[in-house]
Amino acid sequence: MVLSENEAKFKFCPMLKTSDDKMKTCLVTQCMMWRWTDESKSKGYCGLAGQAAHKG
After folding, report:
1. For residue 49, what pLDDT is reported?
2. Rounded to an integer, what distance in angstroms lies between the CA atom of residue 4 and that of residue 47?
3. What total of structural domains would you count in the chain?
């Protein structure tokens, strides 16, 4: 799923959990798995699931 940085930071990350095992939200650009879809860095995706498919 290709998202803006603002949209992504409200999605839960399956790799991040609190000490009481609750999921945390995406770190976006602070995460090594975050990948940009273009050079303008307006949209990106989580690289954990592989490369995002583009529509349009």
Report:
1. 73
2. 14
3. 1
